[in-house]
Write a structure and sequence with these properties.
With 68 residues, the chain is mainly beta. It has one domain. The protein is 10% helix and 37% strand. It contains 1 helix and 3 strands, in the order ββαβ. It has a 3-stranded antiparallel β-sheet with strand order 2-1-3. β1 and β2 form a beta hairpin.
Length: 68
């Protein structure tokens, strides 16, 4: 099963220079794209592993299922 690791980050405010914590978890790649290098820190304790549920993707749950 594919998994996705997401974290909370500490981010430096560009105006005040103060550090704030993100409100939602994101991947490291998302943080790199959104914040400039040196303006964010990964909070390791906040690691969350998200796993896709293969049961929801089976043919029996598709829109054209004969069970409907």
């Amino acid at each position: 099963m594919p998994s996705l690791d997401v974290y909370l980050f500490k981010v430096r405010d560009s105006i005040s220079g103060q550090w704030q914590q993100t409100r939602y978890p994101m991947t490291i790649e998302m943080a790199r794209a959104r914040f400039r290098e040196g303006n964010y820190e990964l909070l390791e304790w906040s690691r969350e592993v998200r796993v896709s549920d293969p049961v929801r993707l089976t043919a029996t749950h598709s829109k054209n299922s004969p069970d409907e």
